Amino acid sequence: MKIATFNVNGINGRLPVLLRWLDEAQPDVVCLQELKAPDGRFPVGEIEKAGYGAIWHGQKSWNGVAILARGTEPIETRRGLPGDPEDSQSRYIEAAVDGMIIACLYLPNGNPAPGPKFEYKLRWFQRLTGYAAELLALDVPVILAGDYNVMPTELDVYRPERWVDDALFRPEVREAFRALAEQGWTDALRTLHPGERIYTFWDYFRNAWGRNAGLRLDHLLLNSMVAQRLVAADVDRDVRGWEKASDHAPVWIELSDLDRPTRRRLRS
């Protein structure tokens, strides 16, 4: 089973990229972020023609998250992160797919820091951590997938010294990610590639893609029931080089079947 997360940076403007990637990669489940479209403008017809059922939580011009499932309909289990009824930003959606709970999230950027946007990011992280503990207590397979807007370690950023004051890399944010992971979540990509520089985002400016000046912002966190089935994890980085591509590349994991032993494959 192949599960992916992809910040599409505008689903309608980059729909040809998404559809091409779906056709080539054939993921079973996909979490999308930054739809930048209200609910009524989600391209459900094109997604269904590609063979995917979908649920989505849109927002005009900004944010927006969706979950796609190949050959089936995701069963929505939550829309919006609990903990703040006044938070109107579309950053979280959750579904049951093939016996798993899959959460798709788009954590706030937080810049400029310090400031109100950074405080909102930290509060959102606290809410996520609190709710993630509830998901762990369910004793079912759970995946937290999405754009976390955080580089957890210096290995996840091309020039760490240039990012020390940025909301994506400040100590408070990295500590929040660490606290979340230490609840009992496995960082899939880093687990299978522990010492490798792997990026999932390259800015449009300053030839970041050409220089491979990237950041690892997109993560799949797995509870123990999913982590024991993890056999592969990687980034489809070539997608970033396609025409009119998002500034993010898809990140994916592969899980073994429940009745088969796990044999993890490391990238050569």
Describe this structure in words.
The structure is a single chain. The chain has a six-stranded mixed beta sheet. A hairpin with a 7-residue loop joins strand 3 and strand 4 (about 65-70). The chain has one domain: Deoxyribonuclease I, Chain A, CATH 3.60.10.10. The chain has helices spanning about 15-25, 45-50, 115-135, 170-180, 190, 210, 225; strands at about 1-5, 30-35, 50-55, 65-70, 75-80, 90-95, 100-105, 140-145, 185, 200, 215, 220, 230-235, 250-255. The mean pLDDT is about 95. It has about 270 residues and is α+β, with helices and mostly antiparallel strands. The protein contains seven helices and 14 strands.
- Strands of the widest sheet, in order across it, are 3-4-2-1-14-13
- Taken from the alpha-carbon principal axes, the silhouette is globular
Biggest pleated-sheet summary: 6 strands, mixed
**Relative strand content:** 25-35%
Nearest-integer average pLDDT = 96
Gyration radius, to the nearest Å? 17 Å
How far do the termini sit from each other?
Answer: 21 Å
Give the CATH superfamily: Endonuclease/exonuclease/phosphatase
Q: What is the structural class?
A: alpha+beta
Helix content: 10-25%
CATH architecture: 4-Layer Sandwich
DSSP, total strands: 14
- Helix-strand string: EHEHEEEEEHEHEHEHEEHEE
Number of helices: 7
Give the low-confidence spans: none
CATH class term:
Alpha Beta
**Which topology does CATH recognise?**
Deoxyribonuclease I, Chain A
How many separate domains make up the residues?
1
Organism: Bosea vaviloviae
Site (Transition state stabilizer): 149
Site (Important for catalytic activity): 218
Pfam family, one: Exo_endo_phos
